[in-house]
């Protein structure tokens, strides 16, 4: 084996390179760029995602929520779609003007400072709004309904649940709902 000398006095050994390594590197690089372009075009909406990805994204909140049954003191799994419908049906819808009247003399101060944290728009007197039972936060009806339609079952502000902790089959307690 001959040793070549470089101009800086370090020995340079000739080495045979396997022809397979550059072709594997090139193939990996091509696959990487193919994946990169596919993701970019899908993100920009120029390419439709494969059916299996579309299926999972459409059902991203297909699960269950565990609720306490007040009669049997046990957890009951309830499909999240049922819980979201329950939330929309049972949270009261009020006009914002009626809501601020209960604050008496402070209603002008409350009216100026109330902002829907979902859309970041101020509440107007004639807006339909929902007041949450557990935390008393208020949101535009459309904003909270959109939030719930996305599979969210907690308050957008403090993350308290939008459904009761226990299912009250009689429906007597405040903020509890009857499950049929």
UniProtKB/TrEMBL annotation:
PROSITE patterns associated with the record: ZF_RING_2
Tell me if Metal-binding is a UniProt keyword of this record: yes
For biological process, the GO terms are: protein ubiquitination
| Xref: Gene3D superfamilies | Zinc/RING finger domain, C3HC4 (zinc finger)
Query: Which Pfam families does the entry mention?
Result: zf-RING_2
Stored PANTHER family: OS08G0157400 PROTEIN, RING ZINC FINGER PROTEIN-RELATED
What name goes with this protein?
A: E3 ubiquitin-protein ligase RHA2A-like
The gene designation is LOC111290235
């Amino acid at each position: 084996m001959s040793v070549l000398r470089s101009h800086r006095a370090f020995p340079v050994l000739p080495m045979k390179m396997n022809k397979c390594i550059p072709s594997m590197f090139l193939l990996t690089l091509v696959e990487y760029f193919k994946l990169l372009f596919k993701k970019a075009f899908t993100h920009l909406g120029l390419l439709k995602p494969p059916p299996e990805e579309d299926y999972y994204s459409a059902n991203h909140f297909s699960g269950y929520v565990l609720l306490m049954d007040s009669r049997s003191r046990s957890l009951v799994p309830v499909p999240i779609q049922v819980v979201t419908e329950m939330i929309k049906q049972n949270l009261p819808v009020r006009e914002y003007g009626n809501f601020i009247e209960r604050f008496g003399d402070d209603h002008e101060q409350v009216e100026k400072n109330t902002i829907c944290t979902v859309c970041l728009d101020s509440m107007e007197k004639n807006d339909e709004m929902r007041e949450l039972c557990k935390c008393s936060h208020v949101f535009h009806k459309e904003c909270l309904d959109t939030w719930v339609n996305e599979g969210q079952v907690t308050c957008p502000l403090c993350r308290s649940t939008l459904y009761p902790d226990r299912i009250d089959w009689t429906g007597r307690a405040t903020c509890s709902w009857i499950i049929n």
